[in-house]
Amino acid sequence: MNGARPVTAPRGPQRTAKSWGAEAAKRMLMNNLDPEVAEHPDDLVVYGGTGRAARSWEAFDAIVRTLDELEPDETLLVQSGKPVGVFRTHEWAPRVLIANSNLVGDWATWPEFRRLEALGLTMYGQMTAGSWIYIGTQGILQGTYETFAAVARSLGRDSLAGTLTLTAGCGGMGGAQPLAVTMNDGAVLIVDVDESRLARRVAKRYLDEYTTDLDDAVARVLAAKSEGRALSVGVVGNAAEVFPELLRRGIPIDIVTDQTSAHDPLAYLPTGIAFADWKREAARDPEGFTARARASMAAHVDAMVGFLDVGAAVFDYGNSIRAEAKLGGSERAFAFPGFVPAYIRPLFCEGKGPFRWAALSGDPEDIYKTDQAITELFPEDAALHRWLQRARERVEFEGLPARICWLGYKERHLAGLKFNEMVAAGELSAPIVIGRDHLDAGSVASPYRETEAMADGSDAIADWPLLNALLNTASGASWVSIHHGGGVGIGRSIHAGQVTVADGTELAAEKLARVLTNDPGTGVMRHVDAGYPRAREVARERGLQVPMLAT
Ligand code: NAD
What we know:
Blueprint: H1 20-32, E1 45-47, E2 51-52, H2 57-69, E3 74-79, E4 82-88, E5 96-100, H3 110-118, H4 138-154, E6 164-168, H5 176-183, E7 187-192, H6 195-203, E8 209-211, H7 214-227, E9 231-236, H8 239-249, E10 255-256, H9 278-284, H10 286-309, E11 313-314, H11 321-327, H12 339-348, E12 353-359, H13 364-377, H14 382-394, E13 402-407, H15 412-424, E14 432-435, E15 444-445, H16 463-475, E16 479-484, E17 494-502, H17 506-529, H18 533-542
Parallel strand pairs: 3-5, 5-16, 6-7, 6-10, 7-9, 8-9, 10-11
Antiparallel strand pairs: 1-2, 3-4, 12-13, 12-14, 14-17, 15-17, 16-17
Helix pairs in contact: 1-2, 4-5, 8-10, 9-10, 10-11, 13-15, 15-17, 16-17, 17-18
GO cellular component, one term: cytoplasm
Active site: 405
Binding site for NAD(+): 48-49, 126, 172-174, 192, 197, 238-239, 259-263, 268-269, 317, 487
């Protein structure tokens, strides 16, 4: 793309912008495009297919220039990655308001979006790409960790120690599974047809070891399970053969899931086609290949249902394998649930979800000090402590040092205020930015993921993310964004983001107290409205006002 060059965010306590709100937005935009962070920085693509941080390099330059000149009572408007106006507002207002990829309902299709994108009128903002708060692979790792921690709790356990998980798909996102399980102290066997994927994950320390021999793999994980030892073992094989074989052998597996690329049948290798012939066969006869892939997925899912029948915890991990297997003839494909209704929704009822922060100093020590502060603020939360400790040991920072953990309603503001005090006291060497991603309780309408199977059938109602964005704007966030199509694609989701800066001032403390209470509060509100008893309890216990909730 014209104008491409390597970008790295400035570090340290000196700013060139006139407020920390504007400086932070500029640094986080630049950080999203840091070659350590972005997948294809030259094309301004941060992650997730074509999720961009800015529409063009000219737009990027104009955003940076405008943020440096922006007065502390002005607001910059960004329309799908292009700066389009500066308006006089006030100090409490966001410094930046962003709208990405939004289209009117009947026009919200990929072909129409691509047409408009080619005309230079829009860009795909994904979730944290166009809202300038992506922090690299730590995000997916933590979400996966949190899911497995929830699975452990659902089994009445503190951790996964002594359990064996079976899964498949060790790719870009699925490769976080083995580390997420071992961080929860469990043993896991992960199947992938592509040996290079397993080798890559071993090199990156996301997977402990792999083998091509199933008997050997099973022996290793069973030993780990019986000793209560954390261990991840990869095995080269086709899940549509390996899962039924393990079921037939009666291997004592406690948890079963899958993250092969089942959402795209051409990216799932059917049995009977050699790995080396995959690409050629898929290109030669896409329809025939699709039918074979779906038939294999049916065998794969039937084995998962078989594990369910013998007492395992089984769930779909957001890759549409149930729907594809059903098309392939699996009659009981929907016998097991998706991961959000099964494990994440109870957390959403407490407003619990992603809470991430980055150190504008660039100094890892600042993050370690905030890790310590979180540990002290929430002394009872064993899974949180385990995550923070293991993340420090295993997660390498990409770009500005950052951290993510999950906190709920009436928790996040405590962390934000603590960080702000630490900045004020000089314990941290520069301000901290605090935001979240959009796998979130109150800011997402996404019927295939975050709002799948809502209790009242409100899966596709998209008023909620809009209310979330308006409320964050009114509460003092530093930048607020409204997106369409993140995660699951154009036409399938509407979601909102917020980021707020802890610069150590009194004003920042007031803004943080409001934003970090109200933002997760909308998650509790949304689930109260949908009729979830746990959300009602949380609203009553923690003092959330919901006018039509009977007292
Ligand atoms: P990817 O394409 O990078 O990896 C998929 C892996 O599956 C590859 O390594 C491939 O070799 C392997 N595979 C394909 N067919 C197989 C078979 N028959 N047996 C064994 N292995 C097989 O994809 P990814 O980015 O890791 O994403 C995986 C899936 O997870 C996608 O469908 C994606 O949409 C979904 N996903 C869900 C969430 C979530 O929120 N739960 C998040 C991200 C991705």
